[in-house]
Design a protein that fits this description.
single chain; alpha/beta; 5-stranded mixed β-sheet; two-stranded antiparallel sheet; 4 helices; 7 strands; globular
Amino acid sequence: MVDKRLGDAVMREGVGAMPVPEFETTAWTTPPPLAEARIAIVTTAALYPADGEAFSGGDTSYRALDAAQRKLVLGHWSHNFDRSAFSIDPNVVYPLDRLDELAAAGTIGSVAETHYSFAGNQPDDVSTVRLDSGPACAAEMKAAGVDVVLLTPV
């Protein structure tokens, strides 16, 4: 029998049944006021530079994106994902232009020089991201003086 529901309904049902990890402690820091904060973007759109390494299926690594590099490839390959908005305006996934405008207006302190991209399609347990690549990415941001992360989940 063929399932005639829309793809996103099937995906929601599958994801909704996945267990959610519970953590004994939650890390928390109080950032400086936004007008003083350095902001970085972390996206799950699998973005990578046109001349860089693409993401592969189940890839739990991340890509560092130089803020000066604006020619990026959207590597998110789900058939349920509409890529047209990104083609028209990459800021829907990677709002770097909006952050630059906020920094110029003094609303935020500064925009980080490096941003980060993960592939949204992760193994069910996401343990590698949680225990390895996620903390490694966080350490890079901390070393770069990032105070606040803007997460753009795709």
